[in-house]
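Structure ticket #2291
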Amino acid sequence: MENINVQKRDFNLKAKKMRRLGIIPGSVSGKSFPDSISIQMDETTARKLVRLKREGSKLMLNIEGQTIPVQIKEKSLDAVNNDILHISFQALVADEKVNSIIHLILVNEDKVKGVLDQMQFEIPYASLPEDMIDTITIDLDGMAEGTILTVGEIPELKSDKIELLVDPESIVLRTSARKHYVPVPEAN
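Resolution: structure written out below.
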């Protein structure tokens, strides 16, 4: 698990000025804290988190000598100018289930014969922190036309340590034969 160094937030600076100075605000919350902790991190660290980690990814935050296991809860971004506005973390407690999401990554999409329709990109679930899953990779190589894959058919999700928060019969993806275009004759 990756370690990230952050500091408690300096409230003498407003968030907008912090971002101009290359400092990104954030927060850590959880049942183990009576109130959320306002934090700040350098923009380089924040950009790396946004680029390489997803919501639901586990990390260790080092806050002025205290190490806290967390998951990324939310990343607030300004889509217009690509600024990072805020990153929220949820503290994890070893013996307490936490709600999270698993990101589905498809590989070998170019080897699918026919049309691929992906209906689910994330799977909501609950588990203890030690059993959390960040991503599941689904290899499409050799997948036949007409295949339908449901949430319950994904091997990693058959564990009794994972509590699905979605119907196991929900369709993740399906493949179908390519439709051929047949022009319709014009009426005279």
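Closing remark: The chain has two helices and 13 strands.
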